[in-house]
Request: fold
Amino acid sequence: MNRTPRRAFFTLLTVVAAVGGCELSEVVLPPGDPVVVVLAIMRPDLNHQWVVVERSLTGDEPRQSTPGEIPFDDPQTPIADATVTIENRSFPGDPCGRSVTFARDPQRLGIRPVDGLYWAPLGCPTMRPGDTLVLRVDASGVLVTGQTIVVGVQQMLLHHGDASVVLPGPELEFNRDTDTLEAEIQPLFGRALQIDVRRRPLLASSRRLRVVSLFVDSTAVTIPGDLVDLFRPGTGDDVFRAGRFYDLSVAFTDQNYFDFVRSSNSALSGRGFVNHLDGGLGVFGSLVAETNPLRVIAELDDPREGTYRMQGTVDGLPVDVEWDLYLARSIPDSTDFSAFVIGTWGSPIDVSVDGYLTGNRLRAVIQYVTGPGVGQPVQRRVEGFLSQQSPFEVFVKNALGQVVGTLTASR
Amino acid sequence: MRFPSFGLLWAIAFVVGTAAPASGQALRAVSGRVLAAEDGAPLRGVAVRVIGMDLIAVSDEAGRFVLQNVPRLPTVVTFQRFGLTDDTLALSADQDTLVAYLAAEAVRIEDITAEAAAPARHRFEETAQTSTVTLDAADIRDAPAVLEADVIRTVQLLPGTVARNDYTTGFNVRGGESDQNLILLDGVPIFNPTHLGGLFSTFDAAAVDRLDFMTGAFPAGYGGRLSSVMDVTLRRGSSERTTARGQLSLLSAKLLVDGPVGETDATYLLGGRRTYADAVVGAVSKATLPYYFADAVAKVTVPVGDARISAMAYWGTDVLDWPWVEDEPGRDGVDLEFNWGNQLFGVTVEKPFGDRILSLHVSRSAFAAGLGLEPDLFRLDNTVRLWSGRWSLALSPDATHDVRIGGGVEDYAIAYDIRSNSLNVDFFSRTYQPRIWFAFVDDQWHPLTWLLVRPGVRFERVEGRGFTSFAPRVSMKVFVDDDLALVGSAGRYYQSIHSLLDHDIPVALFDVWVGADEFLPVARSDHLVFGFEKWFGASYSISLEGYRKWFRNLVIRNLEQDFKLAGDEFLTADGDAWGADLMVRKYGAKLHGWLAYSFSKTSRVAAGEEFTPAHDRRHTLDIVLRADGPLGSTMGVRWGFGSPLPYTDFVGEWRHREYNAIIHAFEDFENEPIPATRRNRARYPSYHRLDVSLRWEVNKWGGILRPYFQVANIYNRRNVFVYTYHYDDRPATRTGISQLPLLPSFGLEFVF
Reply:
């Protein structure tokens, strides 16, 4: 299970228990005892491995609340000049050498060396399913060691209706109203299954927003299309909204990673985290993962839903697209929707947009990419009044609210 | 760690026994019953005295009494109890039984002292049992409380107990964990006797007649727990008329009705209560409070000839029904449904055969907790069910022995199931089904006028574990004079069901019960108690007991449990405890109450680590008094002090990061505490709190109204509940949450 609901529940209990209590006055503490934290997830399905070595928080560090994405961002409390090695005990003839030393330089385009991140040579260490890896980190005299067994799978499958897809497979069209996905692992070595569903960003480099994460001590899990996001109590949301693209990641993990995810230190007792490292905290685990794109559709049960064709000129560029519009949830005075936008918007486009309807009044924001190569993201507002019978006009505005184009739309 | 030699203790008991004079040759035991003249209902607490001799007995709940060592001569016996007309009966030389019928009479205040003290004095004079305190309904009702009177909160004020904080009704007795307390309601064990996460106990104080609390070395008739017995007896319904009593407090509304069943000799008691904050919030605002608790209790007593059949039932529930994700057009929401509660049912038949009494008891106790995100997203179910059947035979083979033999079976079914039907995943499933056969012999022996000995032994066979135990017990009392006795006791105790709580966490919604099986062991404890009890007239008593306890195979939760491995859910621990308990009691109409002081030292060893458990409180002091108050009120005062409790301080935090397998990167994190290496090395500040209550009694509308006002923590002491650390601040800081602040409350009791 994900830690979040457990923590939310635990927090709720604490609040209930302490309902009559008052906050006590603040006391300044001396600096705490530093602990070496090592985070190492070995990915035999990838060819570039790295390890994070950082310090625990002792009250001596400037406060930093930005999570960042490691290795793309810097660790907040790095330990530089550590010696990090990993040895494949099951493969004495490892062409990478008996012991692979990780270095600060990633030797990889687009990633800069930073303190606290240690990179292995490309393709190293050699990892075969069932191999035993031994980690050794020497951080200024503090020795942290750990051991893991490399996970392996025969294959990963996505069952969708009567069909099955071996991952990684083609984009799946998934009807959230009628379909159920089943992720299945045929394991060689490993322990648990982790499913992540994230909304696909416009740009590959953008952050994928996690919509649900399932962690089960099993080799198969079923994901109903109408699954609700439980982690937004009160407001809630559907995990899958029609008119959107998602990336579904299926990962198979070892025991160490399983314990790293499922356990945590209680805020009341300080105990609970299952630590498999000696001399420090963290994880030395392994997993393999595959990601599959999903295109989510739904049954059409509102007259405003369906396909609209929009033609015209925006920013001086020709536009001829189809909107497959699906309503999501209603809130007072409006109804959210998402839509696939496919066609030509200056250049070929296949994106998802979000918007809302107030009656028949449509407001949406479309993001697309222009220009060669990675391109530049452009954001435009689209506004108009839907009509089921006759063509209607929608206006496209820039960030300043200026009309930059008009489209003629029809069912 | 050494354990006492029970062979030695038995040898001592044997030598004493064989050395006893044949004093019973000219003496006899006189048994009998005291019944109400109006309806023949048994009368408890009647002092039965032999005129001209220092012989006294007090009738029990069934109205029975036994006078020991009565000379086989014609004599006279008196019967006295507050609220009843005295009676005097002649006893012939060849007569060994007596039945007295007493009528009700107007109250005479001057008798209150003697009446209140009578059960305790009777226990002092007639039983060898140590470490026992008896409370009556008034003791419970008049002790200041939070919102309303609470049975377990009152027990927490007795010597030998440690209450870790204001938010839990759990308690630790003489170094034991909170799951080592056997809590009985009319003889039926109850598994989780709390509401609202332990804030209130399940017992309606108005339905309680008396409470016997044994903090150690309890007799062979009790089994299944290592540290204490809290035996709560429900009131019998009135045999005279139908009475309705109730209470309106800031917490709940309750109503209790009792009386005779038609024109028969049977009586009934039926009560219920429910919190109403949810209804009030819903009525005055658009907000919803999705929680309430309710309970109900019933008791029926039916005399059949000279036998008596009584049946009791209890039902309690806590309900949290929260729209976790709200319904929307075209989409069903998700409800968080969380409810838990106990259901008890028991039948007892008591049938006298001359001076023997046969008792048969059958009961069912069940606890169920369910947590669901519905429909079908997530479901956690825990059920605990106990069927129990037992018999006992009380007999007096001669004037010096009062023997009870008995036996029975306890059949447990404990189940856990965590699953998601939507995801088609079973997270965890486990059952425990220990069945325990037991037999016991318990002899209250009065070999000499200055000596009481109570040897006993209990045998248990635990099916499923294949474990057989032999648990000898002995208590001794040596009278130095009429008002001073030296006491001592020893015993071995076994426990086959355990709670897998993390005892370092100061609150818990309820216990997580598991039972002995091929993996889980049966825990053991040995008790050794020595002390004295001294009476000063009929108004004061003082008792002081020192104790030593040894623990083996305690079952504690394995925080690193792998759910797929059966038997991985626990670790075993050993330990010991020693200390002393002092209790000074004052009985009287003008001033009534007690002072309880406990000294205790406790340690545990688990997984090679020696540590101090979180309930290791060195000094505990409670002063509870009831006296005349201002404005014609009766005032209750309680002041409690507890020396610092242990906890594990935090020495830092680490970023527990979350891994994104799609992009092979760590992203979000949560700061988690890093505990000090040595467990429970730090201590919170001392605890103290003063509570005051005022009660008035007004005759109105043909009934009695009792308005009350009480203030908990009157000087607003900020007792620490938990500390919170902030090592992500620079410099690091610590704040915390206090226990109950100053909390006034008021309410109204009524009787019609």
